[in-house]
Amino acid sequence: xxxxxxxxEDLKNISIPLEPLRPYFGYLEPKLNEKTISVHYNKHHLxxxxxxxxxxxxxxxxxxKTHNHKTIDFAYQLIYHNMFWKxxxxxxxxxxxxxxxxxxKSDFYQILSNSFGxxxxxxxxxxxxxxxxxxxxxEPYNIKKILLIFDIxxxxxxxxxxxxxxxxxxxxxxLSNFTYFQNQMN
Length: 186
Description:
The protein is mostly helical. It has nine helices and three strands. The protein has two domains: 3-22 and 32-86, no CATH class; 94-185, 3-Layer(bab) Sandwich (minor pseudopilin epsh fold). It has a three-stranded antiparallel sheet with strand order 2-1-3. The relative contact order is 0.16.
């Protein structure tokens, strides 16, 4: 049985609504500017929702039942984006993450440096150990295990950071939402 099949089996009975979470576009100023968030949301995030709505796909389970790669991909993109907005906060709690996971930043960069292309960086806990993992594109993953998720696609940073990915990644780490992380742990 493939990893994808296992993940989809785990999630097939979960009714995850596929509604877009609309962030207040200025909620991360000055670290992420309003224009960057607005374009990201309106030109990327909403595209997935509109496609799913047009095809009468309202839950992840509906998407999985189609056996259509594009539909499943769009459902995951929508869910990952919703989780991404929740993973960010101005609460400035990087020190709390580093207390729990001393290699929070260094492991992030280590995994990222060995990854190619666009996708998502997720923080998970496996066997009581925190781990960063790179998901290529909209690779399905058991969303119940994701504690934080960061959008590593070019569209997430190019308006504000241009080619300076390192500054964008530092910004993401500094915006890590400890409250959301704690909620995901429970």
